[in-house]
Amino acid sequence: MSAKPGEYTLRARRQRRIERRRQEIMAAAVRLFAVKGYINTTTKEIAEAADVAEGTLYNYFAGKREILLAVISETQAAIEMVLSSSGALQQRSDIVGVVATLFDLVVSRLAFVRTLLTEAWLDNLILQDFVIERTKQLDQQIQSFIVERIAAGAYRAVEPALVSRMLMGMFAAAVIPVLRGIAPPPNAEERQLLAEELVNLILDGIRVRSDF
Amino acid sequence: MSAKPGEYTLRARRQRRIERRRQEIMAAAVRLFAVKGYINTTTKEIAEAADVAEGTLYNYFAGKREILLAVISETQAAIEMVLSSSGALQQRSDIVGVVATLFDLVVSRLAFVRTLLTEAWLDNLILQDFVIERTKQLDQQIQSFIVERIAAGAYRAVEPALVSRMLMGMFAAAVIPVLRGIAPPPNAEERQLLAEELVNLILDGIRVRSDF
Amino acid sequence: MSAKPGEYTLRARRQRRIERRRQEIMAAAVRLFAVKGYINTTTKEIAEAADVAEGTLYNYFAGKREILLAVISETQAAIEMVLSSSGALQQRSDIVGVVATLFDLVVSRLAFVRTLLTEAWLDNLILQDFVIERTKQLDQQIQSFIVERIAAGAYRAVEPALVSRMLMGMFAAAVIPVLRGIAPPPNAEERQLLAEELVNLILDGIRVRSDF
Amino acid sequence: MSAKPGEYTLRARRQRRIERRRQEIMAAAVRLFAVKGYINTTTKEIAEAADVAEGTLYNYFAGKREILLAVISETQAAIEMVLSSSGALQQRSDIVGVVATLFDLVVSRLAFVRTLLTEAWLDNLILQDFVIERTKQLDQQIQSFIVERIAAGAYRAVEPALVSRMLMGMFAAAVIPVLRGIAPPPNAEERQLLAEELVNLILDGIRVRSDF
DNA sequence: CATGAATGAGTCTTCATTCAT
DNA sequence: GATGAATGAAGACTCATTCAT
């Protein structure tokens, strides 16, 4: 289409600059959203945090809400990739592995996860599309795992859906104080231990003498 | 200041009227907060729902935020009373009882709990004063219970703080879909069963054969 | 509903004050609209011209466009009343009378008519609802008048719709320079003469010798 | 400044290219102005329609408004040429001819005429420079024509300025529904008939029996 | 005390214009 | 000259709070 040498490079460079700017804006936004919530964050603040003019935001996003959706969408895609590589759960250590990986994900994206949870709490669309929908697969895997073990006589006849949810609740309980900034993020080792302990609890409970 | 007979009564009556009006406003507010969130609720709406003029709100509360704080504070006091009557946890059924009572409380005050959690998520002050602070006592009781049982050799040597938190996470996982409006509120019987199962899980886990 | 003496009066007074304020805002708006057009008039300017805060506008109107529609609607109602009293056209002087009355109306509401025409030019809805629709009756009357006269052999067999429209064009041509501020408003006598002359022209044209 | 052969040609070619680009931009602009109005047309839209970058507009025009003025100015020049070739009006058919030519002009440049009238209505400068000024010559010719005929006893002693203006009003009344998009453009034959009828009306009116 | 109209700072968004590449 | 991203001054509208009645 063009014979000018170097034009391709030029266009590509510009494209990269644009993408970088988009990312900068999203990064600035997610930081603010995490701290103050989407609704309490003004476009002025986002612009300042991204070090651009307010109008510039609108060259990259159709509006404030689209910044939020882009933030959630893009990061979700990244997370999805990590999770989908987990494959079927086969044994105890697989579950521990998934839990540990989830800890890693959450800790490495605190701002994002906090934003996601806040908005999912307030917005049915986001809850459905970005939390329930994305959690479904994992939920299914866990339930399948439990169902198989029950059939094999390894687990007692619990409600798989309930257990899966309780597991998520325990995970959330471990993670929320960190998200909320009232507990320091656990380091890699602590995350591993936490995952172990969490699975221990759900598998064996805490009781050793049945007369209590 | 005055010796007219009956004034004391009059003053008391006025006092009661004022208190009643405060309550009406708070009741109107919490309904709206639960549905739309604090931030999306306007003072105009609160006034209309309470059937007073907008300006009247400011005769009873210093501002919109104070309505929120009053709502939380008052309802918390009521909840507190219920909880504090629980006494020390002695045996398994005591824990089940507390969990069931908590279910009752949450279900009977969905709007309030939803509002509280939303705002606690966004606001450090509310989180600290109305969630962490109020949960502390219960947390302590649970931990003491566990510590005793460990000492008695009934429970294995788990981290009491962790277990207590996991228990809360499981409780939250059971309750949040209801709060969020994506699951119907459980009836009394279901709540009892849920409490049982929840305690079962934490005490015994799900495993019956240790080779898995 | 209330037994407090004077309340009725108080409420009525307040009601009058509100209506007065509405009128003030509309008056301020129509003045600005006439000079700069609706689109070039800011809510800030309207507020300043009406000597209220910008937000106050929104206590009286749902938005900027509603101010425009209210202005047009209210004044139209007034004009309607004048026009509808005209009755059927019977003779030449009736037409002169209607034309003269229309001149009076336009001259006494210059700002309004200018606004109406501007917006009708730009907006199909306003054109249809407030110009075409309202002109229809008059148009029909004129056409009926012409049809009768043609039947009676008094007028030649012209197209009544065309003549009616031409008459409106002539009226517009007489009035637009005044609306546009490039000619002074005619006084009562001039308006009467203009009406006479306009009807003369359409009835007799300008020719006296048919060989030209 | 340079003696290189062929430079003159080169410069001329560049000049032509620039002029062509200017015309492309103006053509794109007038199309948009006609449909959406000057104020509702963005420079971005003009640039897209002209298939250039937004910034490029500013290499050819000082600003958005200058595009409008250029559009009006250039097209006016073309119209002028047509009109000025009409020469002095001598007889009835000359007037019919001018009116028919004007119909042709308007119909063939609907977009432009609509834009011109809109902006002239809102802007004194454009009204004066591009409508009143350009209409003056035609107005004079018509008035001279009338004055002569009055002197010759062919026309009655009407006010020439008034008649000229009425003629314009009738013309406008015939043309505006088309401009406004609520009537289809008349074809060549219809335009001729309309011109005839219009002149008939102004010359002879509609009356054949003077007792009405 | 009750009222509700008035206020104006603050929000999101648009768009003509500029300027580095 | 061409490009189009960056700019920032407006603009319409919202809403918690105040205050005269």
Alpha carbon gap, first and last residue of chain A: 80 Å
Q: What oligomeric state do these chains adopt?
A: homotetramer
Write down the overall geometry of chain A: elongated
**Number of helices, counting only DSSP H or I runs of 4 residues or more of chain A:** 9
Q: Could you give the count of β-strands of chain A? A: 0
Major sheet details of chain A: none
Summarize it.
Chain A has nine helices and no strands. With 212 residues, chain A is mostly helical. The longest helix of chain A has 30 residues, at 7-36.
List strands and helices in order, with pairings.
Four copies of one chain form a homotetramer.
Chain A: H1 7-36, H2 43-50, H3 54-60, H4 64-84, H5 92-108, H6 110-122, H7 124-151, H8 160-179, H9 188-204
Helix pairs in contact in A: 1-2, 1-4, 1-6, 2-3, 4-7, 5-8, 5-9, 6-7, 7-8, 8-9
The structure holds a DNA duplex (21 and 21 nucleotides).
Provide structural commentary.
- The structure is a homotetramer of 212-residue chains.
- Chain A is an all-alpha fold and 212 residues long.
- Chain A has two domains: 1-61, Orthogonal Bundle (Arc Repressor Mutant, subunit A), CATH 1.10.10; 69-212, Tetracycline Repressor, domain 2, CATH 1.10.357.10.
- Chain A is 76% helix and 0% strand.
- Chain A contains nine helices and no strands.
- The first copy, chain A, has helices spanning 7-36, 43-50, 54-60, 64-84, 92-108, 110-122, 124-151, 160-179, 188-204.
- In chain A, helix 5 packs across helix 9 (188-204).
- The longest helix of chain A is centred in the N-terminal third of the chain and has 30 residues, at 7-36.
- Chain A starts with 6 loop residues before the first helix and ends in an 8-residue tail after the last helix.
- The mean pLDDT of chain A is 86.
- The interface between C and D is large, with 49 and 48 residues.
- Chain A binds a DNA duplex (21 and 21 nucleotides) through helix 1 and helix 3.
